[in-house]
Design a protein that fits this description.
The complex is a heterodimer of chains A (about 140) and B (about 280). Chain A has 4 helices and 5 strands, in the order E-H-H-E-E-H-H-E-E. Chain A has about 140 residues and is an alpha+beta fold. Chain A has one domain: Histidine kinase-like ATPase, C-terminal domain (Heat Shock Protein 90). In chain A, strands 1-2-3-5-4 form a 5-stranded antiparallel beta sheet, with helices on one face. In chain A, helix 1 packs antiparallel against helix 2. The model of chain A has no long low-confidence stretch (mean pLDDT about 90). Chain B is of the alpha/beta class and about 280 residues long. Chain B is built from 10 helices and 5 strands, in the order H-H-H-H-H-H-E-E-H-E-H-E-H-E-H. In chain B, strand 2, helix 7 and strand 3 form a beta-alpha-beta unit. The chains are: A alpha+beta (about 140), B alpha/beta (about 280). Chains A and B meet through helix 1, helix 2 and helix 4 of A and helix 8 and helix 9 of B.
Chain lengths: ~140, ~280
């Protein structure tokens, strides 16, 4: 049972929104007392996903939530876009695959940086990625 | 709007202007320190003239071509007022007080036909609201231009290339590396390599808050370009948490010489250039 303690919504429309978003995530991570390494991992994963959202989904909405499960606190981030969707998710999750000209490690890398990773995509409707990083995860 | 209303307002122009001026002068937000009453009257007269001239048969739509002249004057007033130090509220009140004056004039002229009065009031209101919105839009646009200019200025000043030793350049990167920034960094660095004939460049990323795959890709490109110029490139300032993140993310930096601090990068460079730093036994 995951309890949502705090919820914040930010819309991402342009590249200039990335840094304020990252700072907001950092604020929440600091507030729940996340260690520096985990903070950096979370922020980096968030940065990857938000850039993907901008590049492939044409921007969208992000939700930052402070959640708690038992004694553990954590941060859940949800990235929703209304872009073209991902054709083959397992291919997109493969290291080194990129439909653009990037390194192709954004999605799989982000997955390795967090504790829980969930991706849903419908062609023509958009993509939703949800990640959780526990404070002591 | 019926033809009569346009003509009606035209006929009452003088009254409207007087009424508008009285309202402006009576308002608490009047800024005599920024603009004299004569100037204000002239500005108001110009705007009213253009406005009434363009209220004709069907054109009450502020987006239509016939309204271009009015829109232009409004934008001009808004920008010049913003520069003079008026607040957006003061500029807004300036436009909205004209609405009151027009309304008053309509009221006086069309006493006997409530339906017509109602219809024309709605139209005049809508038009003036549009013009009010226009002043805000212009005001914000002016501000945004300032912000954009500052952003580009920050990019310019925050990427210095320093020659730390003969043949060794250091480039401290502070803030986020995006595509535009990388372009500036790369250009400055490559240019400086040519000018100083340096063979080693140290990119210090102590001031980069997060290294994601995009930033890493930009770093790798910069290193590759530096190597093409015949210089070696070292990345320094990799903090422990950044190192862990890079590993988890799966970024391969093994082909690049990386150091934890600028000092160790400098030491490594000395080794490459076969320079020895010794403690002198005698005081210099």
């Amino acid at each position: 049972m995951k309890l949502v303690l705090n919820k914040d919504v930010m819309s991402i429309e342009k590249e200039q929104d990335v840094v304020p978003f990252r700072n907001r995530v950092k604020e929440y991570a600091v507030k729940i007392g996340m260690s520096l390494v985990n903070q950096t991992k979370l922020i980096t994963a968030a940065s990857e996903l938000v850039r993907n959202m901008l590049k492939y989904g044409g921007g969208g909405v992000t939700i930052i939530e402070v959640i708690s499960q038992g004694r553990d606190n954590g941060i859940r981030l949800v990235f929703q876009d209304k872009g073209p969707g991902i054709k083959d998710i397992s291919l997109a999750m493969k290291d080194g695959y990129s439909s653009g000209k990037s390194l192709g490690i954004g999605l799989p890398g982000a997955k390795r940086l967090v504790n829980e990773f969930d991706i849903k995509s419908t062609l023509g409707e958009g993509t939703t990625v949800s990640i959780i990083k526990w404070k002591n995860g | 709007m019926s033809k009569d209303i346009g003509k009606l307002l035209q006929k009452n122009k003088k009254h409207i202007l007087e009424d508008w001026m009285t309202r402006q002068l009576a308002d608490a937000t009047l800024r005599e320190d920024l603009m004299s009453n004569e100037e204000l009257r002239e500005q108001s007269n110009e705007l009213l003239n253009a406005l009434l001239k363009n209220i004709t048969d069907h054109t009450i739509d502020t987006q239509s071509a016939a309204f271009d002249e009015v829109n232009e004057i409004i934008s001009g007033i808004s920008i010049s007022r913003a520069r003079q130090g008026f607040t957006p509220r003061e500029t807004g009140i300036y436009v909205f007080s004209l609405k009151d004056a027009l309304q008053k004039s309509l009221e006086g002229e069309i006493k006997n036909d409530p339906q017509l009065l109602y219809d024309s009031s709605i139209q005049v209101n809508k038009m003036m609201d549009d013009l009010g919105i226009m002043t805000f839009e212009t005001f914000i646009k002016g501000r945004e231009e300032v912000i954009l200019r500052q952003t580009s200025e920050i990019t310019e000043i925050s990427t210095p290339v320093i020659q730390v030793w003969e043949g060794i350049l250091a480039l401290p990167i502070i803030g986020t590396l995006d595509s535009a920034r990388t372009q500036v960094v790369m250009e400055n660095l490559l240019q400086e390599i040519v000018e100083t004939g340096s063979t080693i460049a140290i990119l210090d990323i102590s001031g980069v808050p997060a290294v994601d795959s995009l930033v890493a890709q930009h770093l790798i490109k910069t290193v590759a370009a530096t190597r093409l110029m015949g210089a070696e490139c070292i990345i320094s300032g990799i903090r422990p948490e950044i190192a862990q993140t890079i590993v988890h993310l799966g970024i391969d930096l093994s082909n690049i010489v990386t150091k934890a601090s600028l000092a160790s990068a400098l030491k490594y460079s000395f080794g490459l250039l076969q320079i020895q730093v010794k403690k002198s036994p005698n005081k210099v």
